[in-house]
Amino acid sequence: MAGSGDMWSAAEASCEDPEEHGGDQLDAERDREGVLPAEPGDQRAEDAAANAVGLFLGFSLFAVFLSVTMLVQTSPAVAGYGFDASVFSASLVYLLPASASGVVSAPMAGRLVARFGARATLVIAAALAGIGFAMLAVLHSATWQVIVGALLVGTAVTFGYATLPALINAHVEPADTAVANSVNSIARSVGMSLGTAFVVTLTTRNPIPGPVPIPREEQFVAVFVFGAVLAAICAATVRWFLPLGRQATPAATLSAGAEGKPAAFPARPS
């Protein structure tokens, strides 16, 4: 069976060093897509930028919900602003639209990611948040103004929450996706805590004197302006620190076998 042995030896020689062949396939795939493998320093910068975006989204979510709740429950007869809304009215009329919009905006974010990419979708989310905060800072004397402003910020947060996992999964190694998503989730939770602490700290300083201290209107305006500024910083962070292209995935490498490239060879019989 010398011929059979020669055949298996030649086959094994053509498939030796599979890691090298796999790396060549991945490099070729990236070359065709115009994507270069990320350097370690670049990868750390991308991870930090994605976590900063998560921090901002968590901050925006709690900042807008908490500040809007406090603003609409304030009595205009006492403070000169507000709507004297009950807890039920504040939740149902002013906050529910922003929360319920996620049913529509989350699938929309998925379509935007598929068409324009995760980075462009996150820029759109930051822009929506900036517009929403800026609107609330300038226009908050009518019910529809507060609803629309909160709706814009809520939609931005939904866009961001739906986009970040896709961005992380596309730009980290498959073995690191669970860790990367967990760290980003923690960043969002930290942002929620910071948003709550910021709003409470700012609205409880120098209140309007009375039996029950009431925040001044300028304090809410400061919260909304700060949110708009953070949105601009978030958009710049996404634009400059997150990659535009998408790296090749292991699925692309596995499909190489169908194109006649080196693939795993069956074990040699004993």
Give your account of this protein's structure.
The structure is a single chain. The protein is an all-alpha fold. The longest helix has 34 residues, at 40-73. Residues 13-23, 25-38 and 246-270 have low confidence and may be disordered. It is elongated and about 60 Å long. The chain is built from 11 helices and no strands. The protein has helices at residues 2-14, 18-33, 40-73, 76-79, 87-100, 102-116, 118-138, 143-171, 177-203, 217-241, 250-254.
Brief write-up:
The chain is mostly helical. Helix content is 75%, strand content 0%.
- Residue share in helix: over 70%
Pattern of helices and strands: HHHHHHHHHHH
Terminal residue distance? 13 Å
Reported for the largest beta sheet, the result is: none
What's the SSE blueprint?
Blueprint lengths: L1 H13 L3 H16 L6 H34 L2 H4 L7 H14 L1 H15 L1 H21 L4 H29 L5 H27 L13 H25 L8 H5 L16
Helix pairs in contact: 3-5, 3-8, 3-9, 3-10, 5-8, 6-7, 6-8, 7-8, 7-10, 8-9, 9-10
Task: Tag the structure with descriptive keywords.
mainly alpha
